[in-house]
Amino acid sequence: MARTKEERAAFHATLRGMAETAEREHPEAVAALAAILGNYSMRNAALIWSQCPDAKAVAGFHDWRKAGRVVRKGAKGLAILAPMARKREDGEEGSALAGFRVVYVFDVSQTEALAEGVAA
Q1: Rounded Cα gap, residues 99 and 82, in angstroms
Q2: pLDDT of residue 82
Q3: What average pLDDT does the chain have?
Q4: Domain contains 101
Q5: pTM for this one?
């Protein structure tokens, strides 16, 4: 994982490039995946597709646990960009976009059902 500000910026640039390439070269595939995933942006759908073209359903580690599945040991997460919110400085209600951070999701193919008797 990138530790310095420069490394993070370079990694974000790499992810943006991956998404732009997928959107430009495979727009139909990215749009189809975005339709399947529903609650992910087109940019994140492009990132997911560029890392796992066969993705069918993706979620974070803890969301899979809640769904009764566990991520297989050694599975590599799919990097996406999640928005970060901060309090608004103008005194208005709600929050403002503070930027994006890298989070990892896993495709259902990278998971398996929890064993019987194991608490989620």
Answers
A1: 8
A2: 93
A3: 90
A4: yes
A5: 0.84
Residue 56 resides in a domain: yes
Is 2 a residue whose pLDDT tops 80? Answer: no
- The answer to whether residue 75 sits within a structural domain is yes
**Which residues are paired to 99 by β-bridges?**
84
Measured distance CA(99)–CA(90) in Å, rounded: 18
34 HSE (CA, 13 A, CB side): 16
Q: Is residue 120 part of a domain?
A: no
For tokens 């993070």, name the residue: 8
User: What are the pLDDT digits (tens) for 59-73?
Assistant: 999 999 999 999 999
Report, as an integer, the average pLDDT of 78-83: 95
Distances (CA, A) of 100 to 61, 64, 74, 112: 19, 23, 26, 30
For residue 18, give its domain range: 5-113
